């Protein structure tokens, strides 16, 4: 049809005859309709073939809905990868250097763990059915370091399970995490499409780890989770990455606390602390001390030490990669074990906060303080300030950086004027009261009406319906 279109165009241009132009116009309309129909058939076939593969389906949909890049092809050069790698490494190094230069008057028991007899010194070895179960549960996320796609490994697990079992059991028995699985691949992701892609600070590092390493982590995580449940080690206020303590549970507990105090006529200050690169600055020595303090020893502690040490990461953009950068601190992002280890790292904080009569809710690195008091008790904010100072000292001693400029405070009360003079102070920065804050993805307002949250969900739903409308032809 394209050749026929050109022939008709040449005939019309040779004499500029009106009838030739009419015939060309009619053919152009038929040509456009044929292209549209062929595109519809092609995309419908792609959508149908990906109906049982969500990742592939969303790739097709994103190709339909996402506008093409009008600014030219992105810079995926090796030089840009190296620049990203230096930026991410320097960010963590700068935070750590602040801790090395600031002398805090914090006693050693803030970072040390109490002595505890060894309760778990060896892992239970796995059987073939355990490996098959983990293959079924683990997300098939493929890393460029994997020798073959993870979905292929899952499909061929009948022939690979015995080999994987040998590798996993050797690692558990010897207390060593394979060095070849310690490399992470970082893919920078722009936080918002509207942000400037030339500014590295506008990107979020998304870590991708080898699939076999995640399978091995699943084995350890299941046994470590069982130990945490049996010993009841974690703080009751900690949620996330533990059975019965998901996001919904944390939100229900928080809103219920605030609403009960509101019904009593009390005023509540909700402080949402912001931590900078919390997972990346975890101190290995302190974490291993906490792990030993909870009763881990032998090859279990040796394995966790091997899991943390000797790691590196590189940045990948398209086909280009940076040189590996060694990691001397932090728990690996995108890891199965890291959230659990971070919960253990943060466990002492709850006791410190409650010692001031302040309630807390902890979800990984989301730390929320809640202090309620009668409206006439203006000195209550001083109690909260002392609590925030103690939290700040503990964070510095444990190599975690608080960001006062991004910390938010919500006043929950019947009357807005009850918040006059109640601005808390963190590290010398007065924290202004916000009309609404976002807690674990839910917008909370001062009266707990949830109207801003409902409005935001409605706007998002209408936006999604608008996108679905664009898919109707396919």
Automatic annotation (TrEMBL):
PANTHER family: REVERSE TRANSCRIPTASE DOMAIN-CONTAINING PROTEIN. It holds the Pfam family RVT_1. Residues 170-444 form the Reverse transcriptase domain. PROSITE patterns: RT_POL. This is Reverse transcriptase domain-containing protein. InterPro entries: DNA/RNA_pol_sf (IPR043502), RT_dom (IPR000477). It comes from the Eukaryota.
